[in-house]
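INTERNAL AUDIT FORM
Audit reference: QA-55
Scope: verify that the stored structure record matches its stored sequence.
Auditor: D.O.
Record contents follow.
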Amino acid sequence: MESMIAKFCELIAREQTLMTLNAHDVLVAKIIGKEGFEAIYMTGYGVSASILGKPDLGLLTMTGMIQRTANIV
């Protein structure tokens, strides 16, 4: 985990734009990585839409969001 934090700090310290895409699940994250992007981000809306088919209305628990994040990482 520390190496990922160090890598992220290195990426944002560069004086260039960091292009990222949203990954709502593991498959999308893998595709983004294979396409050469150096970072991804995750949104509550994306996760909620992919799991429940509904917008982020607070229907997912923090535990569920943490589990999805851990899966993606």
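Auditor finding: record pair retrieved intact. Residues 2-72 form one domain.
Action required: none
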